[in-house]
Amino acid sequence: MFKHVVVVGAGAVGSYYGGFLARGGINVTLIARPAHTEAIRRDGLFLDTLTFKEAVRISATTDMEAVKTADLVLLCVKTLDTVAVARDVAGHMAPDSIMISMQNGVDNAERIEHELGLKVVSAAVYVAASIPQPGTVKHSGRGDLVIGGPFPKATLAAVADMFEKAGIPCRVSETLLFEMWTKLVMNCGYNAISALTGADYGTIVEDPTTFELMARIVEECVVVANAKKIPLDSEDMKDRLRKLGAAMPTTRSSTQQDIARGKLTEIDALNGYIATQGKKLGIATPMNATLHSLVRLRERAIER
User: Residue 7 above 90 pLDDT?
Assistant: First the structure.
């Protein structure tokens, strides 16, 4: 069904999924940073995964014009760039093409629709990946997707089928908001702590004192979620937190990777989102607010 897939913001996540699709025979173009683009054009995209290592031939560019021939666009930019980049993409998209938001946070699709009137497919993305050097994606955990949105079931099924055929587990959910909030809670539990300490998930979850801190973070998130009619349960979220650390013990969060590269993080869409929503709802979120403030302080220190 989809003849040309363009990945906008092809960092670690976008390159991982774009690489798998290209490996599966889909015509894919990555829109990436110059160094990454140059390495891919020269040597291909090297996928260093948990199950195979392979250089994949795939188109790469820095030019948004590539979107014009796409019938499916994967939006993989950081949340702080969501609206600006989506507006640029929309200016190039064909009328019948589809955009999928493959980002952290729970309100990207809502923001895009509010600003642009453009309905998008939302995806809960579960993958641990990094770019150790331009042209290479290092995969360290999971790699599955859950999608949903205001589209016909046949359209969502076709998207899921495309990913499945390329070796990417993907299912359609009618309760996607629950899935996305669950991922948000996991990110709130791990990302800031990983960024501020440099510790991997295994080290974090195995430390009893740190896990108690994470439990309090989760409890705040669940209270906010419940107030927004998202039926999360604290004990279930804590159990998922433990399992995530055990499943991906060597993973360091995307927030930690951003800090290490001297880049702005997505903390506003993670612990910052919980703190902001808590304030609007009259719910105290001191743990999330503190972590949000500390990561923002770390960003400012790096800038200086």
Answer: yes
